[in-house]
Each structure stands twice: as structure tokens, then as C-alpha cells.
């Protein structure tokens, strides 16, 4: 196995893949993933990806993001994300990503805490559409090597400068690999919870390793609980009932069959109301009705949700489903600047593993795919410009 690369990227979700695609082909890149190539939360994203649909929406999009984040967001990061969103969507379209459209015009949907529809989507499998297309591009690149079922167990550093990683291969053997730059794109922490929408192998490894090396971390207690996952007593990942279902008109009922809340509250507030109701009713769930959705065929708009619920014994066109909150997203992470640099030289963090402050205390729906892509691209640019600066100095 080759022992030296220009860049090593840990993680093959949207953040890792987009970072790799934004690096030039003359750089030798190694990507590793703890699991299979399609086993990342990026593939699970249902609702969509936000975009600044026109200049007039800037103030409102900015305010919605800040309000959802309890105004604890880093304003500069929010501005960069929103201002970069159109460029990112153009990049995705160029890579062949397909979003819902009508007569050549993109269609927008709405989710909780958004004051207007501004979310692009592909049925209810937006993450699979985006990540699958990015993965296909990466697999075509000769300069990128991907190793599946290979886990980073530590980083190598000297005087606060990162120069490699220790990895555990599929056969259990440990080895070291060096690189000029290392990018941590290891996703969230849901695997540490009993009830989570995340893949169980996403256990916040990068955070543990960062902590061990005194790399700055931020907002470690900012954890998002998604208000609506399908209630189940089976072990394993909880199935998400996307916020866009409520955005399109689904409603929540208590035990008596009465609505008890505004279904489009920000996630943290809605979760609180659902927990309160569950306690009052003494039930382990509340009910969600998709029969109230008007004007669209839910089996075509939400085919994945429709089929999954059917497999679990519920026909959402005819009956309510039991839903319960579950761990969903991590707003905190490895502290990074606007170019995704950590507090250690030559070490970057992107996607859910990182914290650039965009989401504040609570993430606005459909901002995370966008945030992952925007700041992964910025990390790639910074890696390049740093390399040229270092070359000039030497
Ligand atoms: C069910 C669900 C629905 C969602 N819906 C939306 C949505 O509609 N819109 C939106 O914007 N966001 C949504 N999100 C959030 C969004 O999908 C994620 O925040 C985003 O995809 C994170 O991307 P990532 O690249 O940072 O991490 P991931 O896609 O989770 O990828 C992490 C990668 O790191 C690898 N990894 C982890 N640890 C190690 C290790 N030690 N060694 C090697 N590899 C490692 C994993 O194997 C994986 O390849 C949703 C999330 C879930 C779970």
C-alpha cells in the first residue's frame, strides 16, 4: 500500500467527496471510510438542500437561519453559506444532479422555520441523488484512491502540525499513512445514542481524536433532536419522517385525535412540545397524518417514506403513523475558521464533524448539505493556496 499522499480525506459523505472533487487532479488523494461507500448519512438526507433563490430572499433566509440557531450562529459563516449557495447548486447541476423542476424552472419546497419555500429536492431522496452523483465523479478520478471498511484510529502530529493518520484496515491490521494535508469529514455522533436517525458507525471518532491532541472543539452540547421519526421498538437506526412532509401539510395529533401544536415550529421547540404531549397522554409517541396533505400525490412526492411505512405496516394515504423525536444532528464539533482550518496546522475539518458556527444552537432544516458542500469547497481552495504559499517560501 502507498504510504504518502498529498491529501488524505477521512469520510466519503458529501463533505469528503466534494472536497476531493475540488482539488486538482495532479494531487494524489486517499479517501477512507469506516463502512461501505453508500453508508453515510449523506445518502439518507430526504428533505432537500437550501438555496438563495433570489437576491430578495437574502434577509429572510439569513434571519430564519439565525432565529432557528437562537442567534448564537457565527454571522460571517451564515453569510458565506448563503452567498455561496447558488454557485454550489450550479456545481451540482454540472455534476448531473437532478432537482425537481417544472417547465425548466426549479421547484422549491418548505420545511419548519423557513418563512418561504427555498429548498431544492429530488423526490424524498435528495441526499442519495446528490451524494450518488458526487461519488460517481470521484470513482472516475485516477488521482483518488478509496479504501472502504478502513477506519482512522488516530492522527500523527508534531508541534501542532498534522502529517498523517493511523488507520485500521479491513483485516484488522493497523498502519500509518502520511500526507501534506488531512481533512476530517467523519460526519456526526448519532452512533453514540440509543435512538438516532444516523448510521450507527458514526460515533464522533474525529472528535475523540481531536480532544486527545488538544485540538479546539466547540459547542459539544448542541445536539439536535428531530421531532418526527417513525416510532419503532426494533433495534437500529430510526427512520426519519422528513420535515418537508409537514411543510407540505401533514399535521400532528394527540391521543384524543386533536392537533396540539404548530407543526412548522423550529425543530427544538417542536420536539419540546411533542415530549410534553407524550407525557400528558402517557404514550411513547404522537400521531402524524399525511392525509391532510392537499394537492399532491404523496406516493409520488414521498415515495421512500410511503414505501418504508408500508413495509412497517402503515399506509400513510389511509392512516396516521406513530412518530417520536430522536437524535438527528450535531451542531457542535471541531472548531474551524471560514476556510475549515482547525487549530492544528495542515488539519481541516468539514461537514458535520466541524463547527464553523453556521447553525448556532439549532440547525435550520436543509442547511446541512449546503453547509457541508460550501465549506468543503473552501477547504479545498485553502489547501491549494497554502501549498503555493509554502512552495514560494521554500
Ligand atoms: C435521516 C437523515 C436525513 C437528513 N436529511 C437532510 C436534509 O434533507 N437536508 C440536509 O441538509 N441535511 C439532512 N441531513 C443531515 C445531512 O445528511 C448530514 O449532516 C450530512 O450529510 C453530513 O455529511 P458529512 O459528509 O459531514 O457526513 P456523512 O455523510 O455522515 O459521512 C461521514 C463519513 O465519515 C466516515 N467515517 C466516520 N468515522 C470514520 C473513521 N473513524 N474512519 C474512517 N471513516 C470514518 C463514514 O464512514 C462516512 O463515510 C439528514 C441526516 C439524516 C441522518
UniProtKB/TrEMBL annotation:
It holds the Pfam family FAD_binding_2. Residues 6-369 form the FAD-dependent oxidoreductase 2 FAD-binding domain. Gene3D superfamilies: FAD/NAD(P)-binding domain, Succinate dehydrogenase/fumarate reductase flavoprotein, catalytic domain. It comes from the Bacteria. InterPro entries: FAD-dep_OxRdtase_2_FAD-bd, FAD/NAD-bd_sf, NadB, Succ_DH/fumarate_Rdtase_cat_sf. Pathway: Cofactor biosynthesis; NAD(+) biosynthesis; iminoaspartate from L-aspartate (oxidase route): step 1/1. Belongs to the FAD-dependent oxidoreductase 2 family. NadB subfamily. This is L-aspartate oxidase. It comes from Robinsoniella peoriensis. The gene is nadB.
